[in-house]
């Protein structure tokens, strides 16, 4: 399912669209000085995607709590909740797929970092069955992932930075798509900023920030001056979810407003200076002594937990059941996408299996149709160009390879495909790609091992061309 979010007007007044599904996979970084319109941009993104994807907002100033009345977000006031309850709340957020705003207003900087670290870590550590897609929006991200030490305790800084790094670096496997906004790139930890593939760069004035923004946008340093001239609410956009070349986007209007607004000029009072002096220094009324303060009691979070549970069904709605043919079609499409990814050869089967389960869930197929060993076998088949087990014509080849390890199945099937279709013998590089390696030495040892099992026979003619036969099947490749 393709969902495009309209962020405003692009060049020629054309709609500036963000592919929401691509955004979930590639993350977003928003940068701009105070007053450039970052919060307005995030609010536009949240409003336009509300109802399409779960939203989790980490809000240090309490600006986004107004989304609750219009879009049904549950507001978590961190100042009124126990720290030990924050992780429990985050776990229920993932379980019930509730859209929430974690308001950190009223906490000191160290308390905000401690609370955000506990909340984001609990989102990240949720059980695999709760890895549903979610946008995780963090405003003022430099507060939670600072580039250097500050006045907070080192333990708190490390916990917050670790949680932000997990969100941006490893969150995609768990369905978490980080959307972070910062006033200055120089204040944001590089490991956190570097994981975003989509960028919206607003007005900034410092040379170091303009240079980093230009580098991220793929612009020359002399072109960075235009970042200083951007109007408020206008951003330079780039990324696979937005556009392939930098373009200017004017963010559209929003339906809700922040509780804190930009300052506006108001007329000063007309009272004479003498009257104002009298008002300021007039004696106040005699006030009764304040009543004795009661012993402070811990604020319970049960009511907040009940509100969160009531906001969504007690059990997350099950995905519609897929027929066997529909499930196999989804699995074949996901395996084909993984096999065609040029980076998949350098990743282990366990990492690719996590990616596989998330892609299946996003396509409406949950839980995963098979376990890790079966996935390794199917991935080997996919690397040989066989994406479905329903094709019975490959049964003899699969039976012949029954004694091979699963990771060797791909190279053998690649040879079998070429032999059955009498195509030229695959090169060592092609066999290496199907084996998930770049070492040609490993390929030669692999072929020697398969030949020692009497599954293939290699012939090299006088001109140096190689052909490979599969005696059990009576198939032979053309010489190459």
From TrEMBL:
Pfam families with a match to the protein in the record: AAA_16 (PF13191)
Classification via SUPFAM superfamilies: P-loop containing nucleoside triphosphate hydrolases (SSF52540)
Orc1-like AAA ATPase domain mapped to chain residues: 28-155
InterPro entries: AAA_16 (IPR041664), ATPase_Atu1862_pred (IPR014588), HerA-like (IPR008571), P-loop_NTPase (IPR027417)
Keywords attached to this entry: ATP-binding, Nucleotide-binding
Record GO terms (molecular function): ATP binding
PANTHER family with a match to the protein in the record: HELICASE MJ1565-RELATED
Identification of the protein by name: ATP-binding protein
């Amino acid at each position: 399912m393709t969902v495009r979010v309209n962020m405003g007007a692009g060049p020629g007044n054309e709609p500036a669209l963000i592919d929401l599904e691509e955004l979930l996979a590639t993350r977003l970084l928003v940068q701009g000085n105070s007053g450039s319109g970052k919060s307005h941009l995030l609010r536009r993104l949240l409003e336009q995607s509300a109802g399409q994807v779960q939203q989790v907002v980490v809000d240090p100033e309490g600006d986004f709590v107004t989304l609750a009345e219009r879009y049904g977000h549950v507001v978590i006031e961190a100042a009124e909740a126990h720290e030990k309850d924050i992780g429990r709340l985050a776990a229920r957020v993932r379980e019930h797929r509730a859209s929430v705003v974690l308001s950190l207003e009223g906490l000191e900087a160290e308390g905000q970092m401690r609370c955000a670290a506990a909340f984001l870590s609990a989102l990240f550590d949720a059980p695999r069955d709760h890895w549903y897609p979610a946008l995780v929006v963090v405003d003022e991200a430099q507060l939670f992932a600072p580039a250097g030490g500050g006045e907070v305790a080192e333990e708190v800084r490390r916990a917050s930075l670790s949680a932000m790094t997990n969100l941006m670096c490893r969150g995609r496997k768990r369905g978490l798509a980080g959307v972070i906004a910062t006033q200055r790139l120089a204040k944001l930890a590089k490991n956190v900023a570097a994981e975003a593939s989509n960028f919206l760069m607003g007005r900034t004035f410092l040379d170091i920030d303009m240079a980093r923004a230009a580098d991220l946008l793929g612009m020359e340093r002399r072109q960075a001056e235009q970042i200083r001239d951007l109007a408020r609410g206008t951003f330079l956009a780039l990324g696979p979810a937005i556009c392939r070349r930098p373009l200017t986007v004017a963010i559209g209007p929003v339906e809700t407003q922040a509780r804190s607004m930009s300052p506006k000029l108001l007329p000063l009072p007309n009272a004479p200076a003498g009257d104002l002096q009298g008002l300021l220094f007039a004696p106040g009324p005699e006030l009764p002594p304040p009543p004795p303060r009661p012993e402070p009691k811990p604020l319970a979070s049960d009511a907040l937990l009940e509100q969160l549970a009531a906001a969504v069904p007690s059990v997350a709605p099950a995905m519609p059941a897929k027929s066997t043919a529909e499930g196999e079609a989804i699995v074949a499409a996901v395996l084909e996408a993984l096999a065609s990814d040029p980076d998949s050869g350098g990743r282990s089967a366990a990492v690719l299996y996590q990616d596989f389960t998330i892609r299946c869930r996003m396509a409406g197929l949950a839980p995963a149709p098979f376990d890790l060993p079966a996935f390794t076998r199917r991935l080997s088949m996919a690397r040989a160009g066989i994406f479905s087990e329903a094709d019975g014509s490959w049964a003899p080849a699969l039976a012949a390879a029954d004694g091979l390890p699963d990771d060797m199945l791909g190279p053998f099937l690649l040879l079998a495909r070429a032999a059955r279709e009498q195509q030229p013998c695959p090169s060592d590089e092609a066999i290496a790609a199907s084996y998930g390696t770049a070492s040609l030495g490993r390929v030669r040892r692999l072929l020697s091992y398969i030949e020692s099992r009497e599954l293939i026979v290699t012939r090299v003619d006088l001109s140096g061309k190689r052909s490979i036969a599969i005696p059990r099947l009576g198939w032979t490749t053309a010489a190459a």
